[in-house]
Amino acid sequence: MRRLFGSVRARATLGATLVVAVALVAAGAAVLLSLKSNLMGEAGTRAERSARAVAAELAAGTPYDKLSGLDGDDGPVQVLAEKRVVAVSEDLEKISGTDSDRVKPAPPVAPGGDDDDDSDDHEESLEPGEIAGESTFRNGSATIDGDTEDYRFAAVEVETHDRGRLKVYAGAALAAEHGAVQSATTVMLIGFPLLLGVVAGVTWLVTRRALRPVEGIRSEMAAITASEDLARRVPEPQTHDEVARLARTTNETLAALETSVERQRRFVADASHELRSPIASLRTQLEVAAAHPELLDLGGAVEDTVRLQRLAADLLLLARLDAGERPGDAKVDLAGLAREAAEGRTGVTVDAEPVNVAGSRGQLGRVLANLLDNAQRHARSAVTVSVRREGDLAVLGVADDGDGVPEADREKIFERFVRLDAARSRDDGGAGLGLAIARDVAVRHGGTLTAGQGPAGGALFELRLPLG
After folding, report:
1. What is the pLDDT of residues 368-421, one digit of tens each?
2. In degrees to the nearest 10, what's the CA dihedral of 23, 26, 27, 29?
3. Could you give the domains of the chain?
4. Which of 94-98, 227-231, 344-348 has the lowest mean pLDDT?
5. What is the rounded CA–CA span in Å between residue 205 and residue 203?
6. C-beta neighbour count of 217 within 10 angstroms
7. Between the CA of residue 41 and those of 29, 35, 145, what are the distances in Å?
8. Does residue 75 contact residue 47 with C-beta atoms inside 8 Å?
9. H or E segment at 333?
10. What's the CA gap between 318 and 324, in Å, rounded?
């Protein structure tokens, strides 16, 4: 049971069914109340019509035994004079709901009798022969010729010329009204469950159809997880709803994940390749030194060790950047940083105005050092470092007078382990991580690093960072 109602489809079906059930119960109750009220009003209208017909005959002076409404065809009739029964319908055996339960006329009262003392002050003053405009209604029952039924009684007062104030009670049977209400109740008791069953079935089918793409996404994701094949994609419905957007977002996530994993694999492969050469060279030199100490190339061993140290440092920094290491928010003077980085470098000039940014002084210094190393490697004779403000950005530029970077390769050079000059040796060109590290640091600081053409025709690298 828990598993069944743990599904979205089951909960949606149950929720829709409950909502419809509540609405049907409320609507059914309202319909029954309205039907009962209308039917009760119709019965009251019939009873009032009968009571006024008898009252009209009494106002005209018709004797009690000549009243046409006492035949019992239209329902029970009872005429009261000061709560004393003076006329009743034929075959009336029992009555309730009126001012008197007597079903036989009482004997006449002599003038000045006790009943004169019981007369009430009437709310409505009537002239002889006048019928009251307002009627009162009550529910009761009556037994006529052995049949007992519920009735709606209407009471009408009339002022006669010779018999004083009389009150006429006439009843209209409620059997038809009760039957109509019972029939409506029966229809609802039968129809509502059937309607709820239809609603539940339709909701179950509709939600199954609506959630079918979600199941397809789930099953495909399970298959991708089992196979570890990130090149696969989940099916995208040809719709414009939330499920289609979920599928597209899932595929975008898979694409990003595939790119990240492929990047990591390529990174590991390239790192292993770059490490293999200095390690192999260093091992060879150590093995030769072990066998022939006099042949030890100490300078080459130290150089290979330095290369390994630098490469290990670059790889460690890239790992920290990929892990999302925050650069910090210390204030860094780019102009001072540029002068420190250029100090001791041949052919490097600095043209900088004081500009402060927020970040890691060590990481930004690493960016500048990498850019200067790259520029000096390709420059013919001069490298220029500039620092300036540009709106709300600080711009640090490093330009050289070398051959520059072809426009088609200006983004490729920022990839890891990329060296455009295939003939260049590892010793001269490094591992191809300097520019990749520089761009990653720039992005972590909320900035950009781009390559272009410098004033002297060589390469121009511009680092743009938000002002601190």
Report:
1. 999 999 999 899 999 999 999 999 999 999 999 999 999 888 898 988 777 665
2. 150
3. 1-107+126-224 (no CATH), 242-322 (1.10.287.130), 330-466 (3.30.565.10)
4. 227-231
5. 5
6. 19
7. 18, 10, 26
8. yes
9. strand 330-333
10. 10
**DSSP assignment of 140-207:** EEEEETTEEEEEEEEEEEEE-SSS-EEEEEEEEE-HHHHHHHHHHHHHHHHHHHHHHHHHHHHHHHHH
pLDDT at 319 over 80: no
Tokens matching residue 324: 């999302």
From CA 56, how far away is CA 58, in angstroms rounded? 5
Full-model pTM:
0.50
Say how far apart CA 51 and CA 77 lie, in whole Å. Answer: 8
What tens digit of pLDDT does each residue of 438-457 get? 999 999 899 999 999 999 88
d(CA 303, CA 309): 10
- What span, in angstroms and rounded, lies between the C-alpha atoms of 273 and 416? 13
Beta strand 459-466 with 393-400 is antiparallel
**3-class secondary-structure state, position 407:** helix
Residue 439 in contact with residue 462, Cβ under 8 Å?
no
